[in-house]
Amino acid sequence: MKQLLLICSLALSSLPAAAQEKSPPFGLGDLAPLAENFRELFEGFADDMMPLMEQLADKMSDLNAYEAPEVLPNGDILIRKKPKADDGPDAEPKVNPDGSIDL
């Protein structure tokens, strides 16, 4: 490993100075205005899409009321509503018309 590191460092140090100072054709400074334009574009897109995304989130919460889709042999797709869960027993006992109480 040390030998490989030594060989690489010697190879880099032997390069001509002009090759080491040569910059890439496009520097990061050249891309700054383009990056700024894309940032503004995506911020505008996000601002335009926010109300739609909120509506979609509301609709997604409604999906829990439905069962999984079922494809029939003829190609029809059924999406049934889930039956409402029973809330359980009432906190207060029911009073019958004759005055008796069901427990």
From TrEMBL:
Q: What is the lineage of its organism?
A: Bacteria, Pseudomonadati, Pseudomonadota, Alphaproteobacteria, Rhodobacterales
Region ranges (Disordered): 77-103
| Organism name | Litoreibacter ascidiaceicola
Biased-composition ranges for Basic and acidic residues?
Answer: 84-95
Q: Which named protein is this?
A: AAA+ family ATPase
Question: What are the record keywords, sorted?
Answer: Signal
Q: Where is the signal peptide?
A: 1-19
